């Protein structure tokens, strides 16, 4: 199963989603079954490590984020089984970019996998906010990655 996490800049939310999911997959001994990556709909941070604030907040929870930002490319829609958008804007941009109907159907929303945060409809962009925004992103992503992995492993058994 190949999963691509997508946000706007690929320096805050989606590299955190990738790192948290990788951690969870390894914790469950499932690393051979998953290939994970992340990308952004905006190319302006290409080549950069995740935002320092995101790296610091993630490290406090045991996640080392080492991804380098890259933009979404057309081949992603063929290479990945699932393309997971952090918010509605990412979701609609990805749906528009999808080269085929089959590819469009691979695009889903990260928030839909949350089980403990019923009052959110997106993983909110933390870039222009403070520390609490980064903590909220991590809370939502820990919830969503668990929901995602449980739903994928339940499908197989
Ligand atoms: P991300 O956060 O989409 O979670 O990586 C952002 C990163 C950069 C910008 C906006 C959001 N920006 O405007 O440069």
Features:
157 residues, alpha/beta, binds 4-nitrophenyl phosphate, 43% helix, 4 strands, 4-stranded parallel β-sheet
**Strand-residue fraction?**
5-15%
- Ligand identities: 4-nitrophenyl phosphate
In DSSP terms (H or I, runs of 4 or more residues), the helix count works out at: 6
Strand order in space, largest sheet: 2-1-3-4
The major pleated sheet works out as:
4 strands, parallel
Helical fraction equals 40-55%
Distance between the termini: 15 Å
How do the helices and strands follow one another from N- to C-terminus? Answer: EHEHHEHHEH
Question: Can I get a quick summary?
Answer:
This protein has 157 residues and is α/β, with parallel strands linked by helices. It contains six helices and four strands; from the N terminus they run βαβααβααβα. It has helices spanning 13-27, 52-60, 76-79, 88-97, 101-104, 131-156, and strands spanning 2-7, 35-40, 82-85, 107-109.
Layout: helices, strands, pairs:
Blueprint: E1 2-7, H1 13-27, E2 35-40, H2 52-60, H3 76-79, E3 82-85, H4 88-97, H5 101-104, E4 107-109, H6 131-156
Parallel strand pairs: 1-2, 1-3, 3-4
Helix pairs in contact: 1-6, 2-6
4-nitrophenyl phosphate is lined by residues 7-13, 44-45, 125, 127.
Structural commentary:
The protein has about 160 residues and is an alpha/beta fold. It has 6 helices and 4 strands. It has helices at about 15-25, 50-60, 75-80, 90-95, 100-105, 130-155; strands spanning about 1-5, 35-40, 80-85, 105-110. The chain has a 4-stranded parallel sheet. Strand 1 (about 1-5), helix 1 (about 15-25) and strand 2 form a beta-alpha-beta unit. Helix 1 crosses helix 6 (about 130-155) and helix 2 packs across helix 6 (about 130-155). The structure holds 4-nitrophenyl phosphate (4NP). 4-nitrophenyl phosphate binds near residues 7, 11, 45 and 127.
